[in-house]
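Issue: ligand-bound run for guanosine-5'-diphosphate - logging full I/O for the record.

Environment: standard queue, default settings, no custom constraints.

Inputs:
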Amino acid sequence: TLSDRLTSVLKNLRGKGRLSDADIDATAREIRIALLEADVALPVVRSFIAGVKERAKSAEVSQALNPAQQVIKIVNEELVGILGGETRRLEYAKTPPTVIMLAGLQGSGKTTLAGKLARWLQGQGHTPMLVAADLQRPNAVNQLQVVGERAGVAVFAPEPGNGVGDPVDVSRRSIDEARRAQHDIVIVDTAGRLGIDQEMMQQAADIRDAVKPDETLFVVDAMIGQDAVSTAEAFRDGVGFSGVVLTKLDGDARGGAALSVRQVTGQPIMFASNGEKLEDFDVFHPDRMASRILGMGDMLTLIEQAEQAFDAEQAEAAAQKLGAGQLTLEDFLEQMQAVRRMGPLQNLLGMLPGAGQMKDQLANFDEKHLDRVQAIIRGMTPAEREDPKIINASRRQRIARGSGVAISEINDLVNRFFEARKMMQQMAGQFGGFGGGGNRK
Ligand code: GDP
Ligand code: MG
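Outputs:
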């Protein structure tokens, strides 16, 4: 995954004050591979990477994130931006019924989607009706009727025994029926072919002209991969559409089709299908899709949490003191609280790339120990936190009583604190300034 590969790039970048062109190029190469692996079409990858590089080069150095995290953040923001930023809502007709037409290749999931969409709309107080305008396959009408029954919505279909009906005629009549029976939304399920086909495209265009849809949704299988671009272009030119629905997201496709279709047609992705059941359906979430395409949702969560919890000024001050061997227990407490605000340490460490081998140690890690350490420090006066040397026997007794721990635990903490501080001082001496100059100018 990108996360694994970026680990090495991360190593190289970590600790540098700002992004060099070489750093950005190295990271861009990894992102390029990740996008191609996610089946994003090549021209889309190219223009995307160019945009990211541009932004990375002019970006201000973040106080909260290391350079690699910062690049990942930029990549993610660009992805979310292209995928739609805020999700667009359905446009409803001023006078009902609102007509929603579904178009897409055979097997893309139109009929399934019709049921999901109808039920979703019903849940919002609408009274949708499904229209069987796929009269190509013998079973198609029946399939829609089953879907309609399951969703609990009306289905308009050609009368049985009349031979094969004309899909354009059925679609036209469905609008009158919707008005009569007061359905405020009509969802027209059309036929598809296995490949792009002129006859099918013409039929879809004829249905479009007959029902004048308020929304035409292009339904596309997320597993389609690189073919997404040519298919989307064919439907854009043949029928035209106002929105995209991505299906089969429950599969293992990384979802590059989403970025390709969005970038090439400019139309928003509005809904996502992720299963065969009626409830496997949601409005499209650009942020979720972005992390899926990047394949590093955990890393993004970590970045977000780091930004929230990390107070750069505080860290800077602590680092300065550390370098001068002046770390106090108060600093220690603050740092510990900042880290813990990001969530349980087990989760936190588990999210880091390469944490796999640490699983066992993580499982044995006792968070309660940190609670006790915090309790001890909180039981100290400011003067004691500032200069732990003054903590004599009677003070230890008072702190133990106040924080409900044994005196031996306080001894432990104070001793380890002195040891750690001594070690820092030695390191500072050895390396000529520890911590203060690392991440920042
Ligand atoms: P249509 O030809 O475009 O109408 O496609 P269908 O709605 O008939 O779906 C084709 C097949 O894909 C059916 O077996 C559906 O059950 C299945 N399908 C549709 N949407 C999804 C989805 O989101 N996830 C999964 N796993 N299967 C789906
Ligand atoms: Mg169908």
